[in-house]
Amino acid sequence: MQKRSIGQSALNVHPIGLGCMGFSEFYGKPTEEAEAIATIHKAIELGVDHFDTAEMYGMGANEKLLGKALKGTRDKVVIASKFGIGRDRKTGAVTGLDGSKASMRASCEGSLRALGVDSIDLYYQHRMDPNTPIEETMEGLLELVSEGKIRAIGLSECSAQTLRRACAVHPVAAVQSEYSLFSRDIEDEIIPACQELGVSLVAYSPLGRGMLTGQYSREDKGLSASDYRHTQPRFAGDNYADNLALVDVVKAIAVRHDAHPAQIALAWVLAQGEHVLSIPGTTKASNLTSNMKARSVVLDQDDLAQLSILSAKVKGDRYGDMSVVNR
Ligand code: ATR
Predict the structure, then answer these.
(1) N or C: at which end does the chain have fewer Cβ atoms within 10 angstroms?
(2) For 227-244, what is each residue's pLDDT tens digit?
(3) Closest ligand 1 atom to the C-alpha of 21?
(4) Nearest CA to ligand 1 atom 12
């Protein structure tokens, strides 16, 4: 599959990258370092050239891991990271959102050190700060661009209105948002704004945080005790079984294609247009190898029609507290 450009920036990547969050936090215990590094090396071997991390994932641990694993491959890959979510160093609790210039600069310096690089290719504001105008944040980001500390600017989970204001200051290369067969609310305003403004959409959780892979059963969620998905609305209570019933549609299509359900979910995301990139998360080389095969799955009109009705039937919000997204 051809590379896709990231907005109007000079960056080009293959449409399936690697979301690295799960190596360090949120989806159960951190992956053993050797296994994580082996998975990242496998990704490079398979042609993955877009690695997504954030300052907040493992409070620097995820960036350190990625930096260590990518040593010696700097010119082959695009590294994306994010700033703007403050955390208590002791408890890990989120302390607030900060898009101020001073905070962004301190975060960027820390991320550069953790990653062991001179420049971050794509640097996102992770969540929009209600107390700092986006124009001010963009000015700070532009200073980092002019100093060579970052190459392109991204916004994660912004509203269409914020994106328009940001682009009036300087082109935004990418918006990162949750986008999958189960999460299509951004099609109303955000994707049209991206298309109009020449901004790429980087789809995170394209596998519905794993649910669309068909690996979970009604009897057993298969999640470890520390996995945050126990409290995620779509995995919680009665929603879980109702949502799993929708995954049966994906499974049936997978059988027809002699494919894995995850490949169907990813093929759907990739079919949404040249401006869409995806960063499925996996900690396992075997799942990564399988996911990459989604590039050769071609969905037909009948598949697309069956898949198109799923998102409207999904039970539960994307987050327990939706107030921090699409600002
Ligand atoms: P996120 O962007 O939040 O990481 P996602 O990409 O929608 O979310 O889904 C990630 C989840 O899907 C992870 O729990 C991952 O588990 P592993 O680390 O064990 O792989 C799971 N996942 C990814 N690809 C998979 C596959 N091919 N089969 C089964 N599970 C898979």
Answers:
(1) N
(2) 999 999 999 999 999 999
(3) 4
(4) 210
